[in-house]
Automatic annotation (TrEMBL):
Signal peptide: none
Taxonomic source organism: Rhodobacter maris
Positions contributing to Zn(2+) binding: 254, 258, 284
Taxonomic lineage of the native organism: Bacteria, Pseudomonadati, Pseudomonadota, Alphaproteobacteria, Rhodobacterales
Protein name per its UniProtKB record: Metal-dependent carboxypeptidase
Pfam families hit by this protein: Peptidase_M32
CDD domains with a match to the protein in the record: M32_Taq
Catalytic activity: Release of a C-terminal amino acid with broad specificity, except for -Pro
């Protein structure tokens, strides 16, 4: 065997074990009995020890030195494998194992604290997580600690680049929000009871409309919606509130965007570094364009309105136009995953600033709740009444995902670019959406972006798909146009 063949055979086994670890995480957040949490933490820690040993195996360095690439894909495999080896080699096995054990336990503790509105139950564990993430960042850092963690989710991005992008976005977002909230044309929220079973039936209709392959996936409930897996086993979750059907339906469509990216990657890339989405920013571009530019369009909400009427009868919304306004209602709510498109990025900007302060040691975990509540009231004009509306609402920090949050807004920016390019090239998108099919749009996305997996760096992936360099302007122009029309401003 050549060095390249030996390397990829080894990587294939490592990727397969990583999929097993991911499946344990899926089980933990969906159907695992509560009493199994401590045992599951040990199982995940043991598997992480095996994975870390493989990712730092000295043979990798030898294979990488001797392997020769003959194609673009092979060159990219070597590049990504080298990057993974270099990063993993900087992290002690003890730290990798302890992080896996602690974050497995922490997720369950967070869920209990969130349900009980009891921050004190969670804060000591969060302090341990932050301490370990600071230690990990110090092992990886060649400069800024936060950038070292960010690089796991958006390779090549820095907090300065993202901060500058947020500074450019904020004035237009805030100005549009003030116009929208200042007009008399304010859609009313739905006021009805929407039984869980019927919501989940419509959620499955939506997932099918957006191309989710049910033969390689499933839909379950979880505290916080997520997607798990790649290739031929990609699972999604949602959550249900019987007073708010949009939570379930649009969480499902959002996760279908992630899932279709993973299901759409070229099968030849399976079990290689190319066989997953290239970054979380690019991943979020898929979930956000599915959810917002497509799922919240007038065309698709017209289709969805009819399904809602069939399932629930008269639920207090008079027609498809009023339903479209209701789905896109702008309100300064507390919950990020339920936020409208104008407020969503402001949620992310707040989290970005808070988690940078935590990792830099400029703020301690004990000060987080007060800092969150103060910042939220300043940005949104609303007080936080309970912890589940505030810093306990998101799962990310409990499982150590520091550096993940800004990729949501980067995904929004990328989605704006993709939507602009797609609408310029593809005919019949809205006609198909109105009939309950996103196929013209999703086929373009699969061909232009999804099938390539990790073949190219994130920003290059978007630029090649769109035909132009990405920027925040297409997103902001889309928001101005859409909400200007809905609110008459």
């Amino acid at each position: 065997m050549t060095a390249y063949a030996e390397l990829t055979a080894f990587l294939r086994e490592t990727e397969a074990l990583a999929y097993v670890a991911e499946r344990l995480g899926w089980d933990q957040e969906t159907i695992m009995p509560r009493g199994a949490a401590a045992q599951r933490a040990e199982e995940i820690a043991a598997l992480e020890a095996v994975l870390h040993a493989r990712r730092t195996d000295p043979r990798l360095e030898d294979w990488l030195a001797r392997a020769e690439a003959t194609t673009e894909a092979e060159a990219r495999v070597l590049d990504l494998a080298g990057r993974s080896y270099n990063r993993a080699s900087r992290i002690p096995a003890r730290l990798a194992t302890e992080l896996a054990r602690l974050t497995s336990l922490s997720q369950g503790i967070w869920a209990e604290a969130r349900a009980a509105e009891d921050p004190a139950h969670f804060l000591p564990t969060l302090a341990e997580v932050v301490a370990l993430k600071r230690e990990e960042a110090a092992c990886l850092s060649e400069g800024d600690l936060y950038d070292a963690l960010l690089d796991d989710y958006e390779p090549g991005a820095t907090h300065r680049q993202l901060g500058a992008m947020f500074d450019r976005m904020r004035p237009r977002l805030v100005a549009l929000r003030e116009k929208v909230l200042g007009t008399e044309r304010q859609p009313k929220p739905v006021g009805h009871v929407f039984p869980e079973a019927a919501q989940l039936r419509i959620a499955r209709i939506c997932a099918t409309a957006f191309g989710y392959d049910w033969t390689c996936g499933r839909l379950d409930n979880s505290v916080h919606p997520f997607t798990s897996g790649s290739g031929r086993d990609v699972r999604i979750t949602t959550r249900v509130s019987e007073s708010d059907p949009f939570n379930c339906l649009y969480s499902t469509i959002h996760e279908v965007g992630h899932a279709c990216y993973e299901q759409g990657i070229d099968p030849d890339y399976a079990f290689t570094p190319l066989g997953r989405g290239v970054s979380m920013g690019v991943h979020e571009s898929q979930s956000r364009i599915y959810e917002n530019q497509l799922g919240r369009s007038a065309a698709f909400t017209g289709f969805l309105f009819q399904r809602m009427v069939e399932a629930f009868g008269d639920f207090g919304v008079k027609d498809a136009e009023a339903f479209h306004a209701c789905v896109n209602r702008v309100t300064p709510g507390h919950i990020r995953t339920e936020a409208d498109e104008l407020h969503y990025n402001l949620h992310i900007m707040m989290r970005f600033d808070l988690e940078r302060a935590l990792i830099a040691g400029k703020m301690e975990v004990g000060d987080l709740e007060e800092a969150w509540n103060t910042r939220f009231e300043a940005d949104f004009g609303v007080k936080v009444a309970q912890p589940s509306q505030g810093f306990l609402q998101d799962v990310h920090w409990s499982v150590g995902l520091f550096g993940y949050f800004p990729t949501y807004s980067l995904g929004n920016v990328y989605a704006g670019c993709l939507n602009k390019a797609m609408r310029a090239e593809v005919e019949g998108i809205d006609e198909a959406l109105a009939a309950g099919s996103a196929r013209p749009a999703t086929e373009w996305l699969r061909e232009r972006l999804q099938r390539h997996g990790g073949l190219r760096p994130p920003r290059e992936t978007i630029a090649l798909a769109c035909g132009f360099e990405p920027s925040e302007e297409p997103l902001l122009d889309y928001l101005d146009s859409k909400f200007g029309a809905i609110y008459g401003v």
